[in-house]
Queue: 2 jobs
Job 1
Amino acid sequence: MSGGHAGMDNGHAQTAQKLPICTPLPGNRSGGHAGMDSHVRAALRRLADTPRFPLLCGPTPLQRMERLEQALGCGPLYVKRDDLTPLGMGGNKTRKLEFLVADALANGADTLVTVGGVQTNHGRLTAAAAAKAGLACTLVLEGTRPALPSGNLLLDCLLNAALVFTDGAPVQAVIDRTLRDLAAAGKTPYFIPEGGSNAVGSAGYLALIPELMQQLAALPEPPQHLVCAMGSLGTFTGLWGGARAFGAPFSVTGIAVNPNTSYTPERAAALARDLSDAYHLALSPDPAEMEIVYADGTHDYAGTGYNVPDEKTRAAVLLLARTEGIFLDPCYTAKAFRGFCALAQKRPGGAVFLHTGGTPALWTEEHFSAFAAQLWQA
Ligand SMILES: Cc1ncc(COP(=O)(O)O)c(C=O)c1O
């Protein structure tokens, strides 16, 4: 089985459905169909039996980065292009939203509600998924309404999302009020937590692992490390759980993009436990096993603040653009990419960078003006 989703649009309104999951070939514990542990088979069956709302269109590309290998003096280096998922300019939330939208539909919801920073990629993709599913969408945005809708905000408007700015009020109070108001107006809202990072959404990244294992199995020299950005934990934790459950022959490292994050290894372990319970993965996650690189005295991958422009992050954007013609974003992926380059140079065996999208951030007011000041001299 190729494992691609039945993602062809046939012109009819899409509904949630059971979609195939790739077979993880070969792994330490799975070893292909014949030698596959019964609990691996059971986990794959549970994933395949969980309805998804189709938003992907088959596996995302895995590309070699030979010019980057030359620049860094190590390899083999690959990029897994989750920035190229087909919905709403792409990104990692698409995989989570396949599960979340299906759950919303199963619960009779007519409105998706979620929360994030003013420039949230997750909000933009939630609004896009809502449009595709024929649902309404309300985004609770932590901050004040800017004079102009740059970056993701313009896309949110194009997608007809209702925007509620917190304007200094406690976020949870604004979420509660928004849900109450929608219910009072006769709507049935479905709330998605920040980043879609609960056990429902993170299953999207559990399911990426068999897909990636199948792609790596075809390579003469499969890389031994996988690196991703860590914002609200769902992507990293899904990957971590999948790698453990399916016996992936590579390590998983998350790079924190916020130097003041509250998303601790303890929270990662708790989410991994929820995933393990939901899909019967038989994992016993320990916070000490969560390889998340947080800001400390030894490096500054996370920069000076969440979504704050800085020169080293911009240099990472330029490096990948000018070696491979691939755009990173200055809020998430460029920070993770700095960690990826350092890890690839330090550890032998080659590495895969999971590109999680976010490129509309290049056109937000703060990052656009920082790049312009650097690159647009008269
Ligand atoms: C572009 C991009 N990359 C990475 C992440 C981090 O993913 P997670 O929140 O699942 O840790 C996000 C989260 O919003 C994102 O927008």
Note: The longest helix spans residues 265-279.
Job 2
Amino acid sequence: MPPGSPLHVAASSVPVETPPDERGIRLVDVLPILSIHFLCLGVILVGWSPLAVGVCVFFFFFRMFCITAFYHRYFSHRTFRTHRVTQFFFSLLGATAAQRGPVWWAAHHRHHHRHSDHDPDLHSPSLRGVIWSHTGWFLTKRGMSTDWSAVPDWAKYPELRWLERHHLIGPALLIASLGAFGFIAGKLWPEANTSAWQMVIWGFAISTTLLYHGTFTINSLSHTIGSRRFRTRDNSRNNWVLALLTLGEGWHNNHHYFPGSARQGFYWWEIDPTYYALRIMQAFGLIWDLRPVPAHVYDAARRHGVDEPAREDR
Ligand SMILES: [Zn+2]
Ligand SMILES: [Zn+2]
């Protein structure tokens, strides 16, 4: 997009005002995520099996769904409703992705929508580069902290505050379950050629590493590569490759124009698997009141968008 184009957002000239002492990457925050990456090398010792690879792929997509459906479309934007018990269950499932708790996730994501590609957006590739937006921003003091004032709707639930403090229970439960499954499968079904450690390496370490980078593309590449249907005030893009990888999140320009919809692929040809699954969950009564794309958004799409976004964050 050339500068001067009506769709170009000149955000790169905006200075970053996050306090310097909160901008630096901290070793204490890098070590956990780096450890998961290094744990992938354990594959040299444990080998592989079709069962382990299948479990890896399953937990990649299952947890991608938990992040997009629950952490993003529910906790960040409240695009559907559910019972308080299922709400906690959804938050626990999301925590298995090792992306902290839903309140931390939602607080930062709402901040991103308020300031997209303008200061003080923490993970804008326009402001601080693609690598920073992909992996740098959350390894800082500011990125690791939770702005509770951005999430008063969730702060009132003691069980969610508890999960924020103990978010590691999510990955811990997954690791323990994978280890137990691998151990039992290895004993009872020798032809499967698997073990507890093989299941942990593939089902957690490799799957989580892939899941991290799949999720992070929405902060980095979805603001860099793709087309723009709507003239939003940010650099958000629609990208069908990222939409397939992230179960529908790649329709990011649609989403930035109207974040209040449970649906991010606005047309039948914009594949949005998360939305299809939410429709099925609604049919079973697990969730309800899925918020639709309003008619005025489709009108704006026919006019190739308008200069100011039809924002409805929550
Ligand atoms: Zn965005
Ligand atoms: Zn969003």
Note: The two ends are 30 Å apart (CA to CA).
